[in-house]
Amino acid sequence: MSIAPTIETPRLTLREFRAADHAPYADYLANERMMRFLGGVASAEDAGRRLSMLAGHWVLRGYGPFAIEERSSARFAGYAGPWFPYGWPEPEILWGLHQDFHGKGYATEAAAAARDWAYRVLGWTTAISLIHPDNRASVGVAERLGARPDGEMTLRGQTVGIHRHPAAPHDNNQN
Length: 175
What we know:
Layout: E1 7-8, E2 12-15, H1 22-29, H2 32-35, H3 44-61, E3 66-70, E4 75-83, E5 92-97, H4 106-122, E6 128-131, H5 136-144, E7 148-155, E8 158-164
Antiparallel strand pairs: 1-2, 2-3, 3-4, 4-5, 6-8, 7-8
Helix pairs in contact: 1-3
């Protein structure tokens, strides 16, 4: 049973998570360089729990992050999408890319499509992205998306920058 819609961009498919995503997602979470701003590396077992959490967000909220699939190879490339778990400060657009897919503009492409979907379908009027200040790659994605610094906060014992996305277009009922 599918809950998440499928969104296609010129190079990517944003889709629901699948069991087959576990191995590349676990590889991503095991990479110290990739995880230095996200709480450190995680085991394959923990990757399974986190994957279930991402997929479960759709069940609890009716939306959530999408798995990113590279259209040309059909490979899992990462995740991006709306995120607002209980206790979170505001609705967020998040993203993360497997190390094999860096430097291609995929994070910006996927996050823009997911944000547009959240504005159009969910009726969000704005969103934030919470990014460690030393994570220059993600700060760059936020900037390319038009997000601007809007203070900082402590999240799980770590200082993160708040990046405010531009306001949604006035007509959220476009399909």
